[in-house]
Amino acid sequence: MMAGEEDLKLEATPTWVIAVVCSVIVAISLTVERLIHYLGKYLKRKNQKPLFEALQKVKEELMLLGFISLLLTVFQRTIQKMCIPESLTHHMLPCKREPESSSSTTTHYSLSGGGMRRLLAGGGSGSDYCTRKGKVPLLSVEALHELHIFIFVLAIVHVTFCVTTMILGGFKIRQWKVWEDKIAEKNNDTADVTHVGEHDFIKERFKGIKKHSVVVGWLHSFFKQFYGSVTKSDYVTLRLGFVTTHCRGSPKFDFHKFMMRVLEADFRKVVGISWYLWVFVVVFLLLNVNGWHVYFWIAFIPLILLLAVGTKLEHVITQLAHEVAEKHAAIEGDLVVKPSDDHFWFHRPQIVLFLIHLILFQNAFEIAFFFWILFTYGFNSCIMGQVGFIIPRLVIGVIVQILCSYSTLPLYAIVTQMGSSFKKEMFEEHVQVSLVGWAKNARKRKGLRVSTGQNGSEHGVSEDVNEIQLQKVEKQDEFPLMEEGNRHAV
């Protein structure tokens, strides 16, 4: 190797090399961009607005990654010239520090055999700059590039996991379409009086468990998520409770189609990487210290959260069964449950979506970190850990992915509709636009009346109530319970 070849600059590089590399990079970038563009056009043509918005969210994440990449590249030399005392590099290492020879005082990270050590010598001019000052660079060029790759891998794995979960979960939920079709064909002219205990929903959920048997009820909910998380009786009863509460004037309401629209709309929220998730990444990178095995212990976080969410959702259904079984001995016609926010954590069903988002990201982070270490440092790297720590992490990751897809996500889709409010996806897209437009026009008319002094005190109470309704409609997230006359008008 010729002297200085490793530091060959662009001005000394053959033009054909520059042209070939740029052509390949531009070709790959344009291909990906066109594929995303055509996928977006396809989703718009199929009137899949929520999925189209999710695709736009993915594009935003790719843009964010590009910006992060640009910052890391632009400030590369600046970071290298940030010098710190060498003694600070002896603490909180991800791998056990190996003895240094007298001729390698500038070592920052090095890989040898199965171990990893910090190498300061590969830092180029930044390393020389700090060496002359008796210090070491804050981060080597090699470590900066590896961090660069890790962020990219994390984003790709997270999006892939989210898409996989939604596809598998959606496939499970589409199987319920058969139940919806049978309900639509059913003629409900008869209204026989039946004992509550004879209903399949009560038989499966109540099982004679008294309300004071809290532990038994929670245990039953915990194990129920592993087999038949949502049965036909669950679907039929919860659907009837939703229709009776929110759209009594439309008994043939397509509840299944509504759930699918809600699921697609929520997908765009899950597929993104929010700021608090980036905080989690930074905290993990900080605590990934040799001997702590943080990468192993965090694998249990998504599993524990997933089991807690699944148990809670199953328990909500059980609570609905308890309410009916304890209040009524016999019921005329179909069994009807009453949706309420009181059954959810802090009376907010939205918390479940936040936890699912966190679960998918943490699981993706664990798998992404594993593959990044595998292809960057090798399977025998000290940062990878022992086989006894690796295998459980991978097994837990697979369990979380499967359980979330086939059990927790379907449970989320139907149980979170048992809140006091309904989501805007209850209406078709053109109706949603009309409602929001009506809300804005009504607000303008109210402002005009106030400015002209036509808002009399006798109408003050009704105007305040209308104002609250307008604010909820304009949120375009959830709609409050409407009066019967207004519901029919919509």
From TrEMBL:
InterPro entries linked: Mlo
Keywords associated with the record: Calmodulin-binding, Membrane, Pathogenesis-related protein, Plant defense, Transmembrane, Transmembrane helix
Membrane topology reported for the UniProt record: Multi-pass membrane protein
Gene Ontology terms for molecular function: calmodulin binding
Keyword Lipoprotein recorded: no
Subcellular location: Membrane
Residues passing through the membrane, by range: 16-40, 61-79, 147-168, 267-286, 292-310, 351-374, 394-415
GO BP terms in the entry: defense response
Main localization category: membrane
GO cellular component, one term: membrane
Record-stated family: Belongs to the MLO family.
Notes on the domains: The C-terminus contains a calmodulin-binding domain, which binds calmodulin in a calcium-dependent fashion.
Known function: May be involved in modulation of pathogen defense and leaf cell death.
Protein's name in the database: MLO-like protein
Taxonomic lineage of the native organism: Eukaryota, Viridiplantae, Streptophyta, Embryophyta, Tracheophyta
Gene: MLO
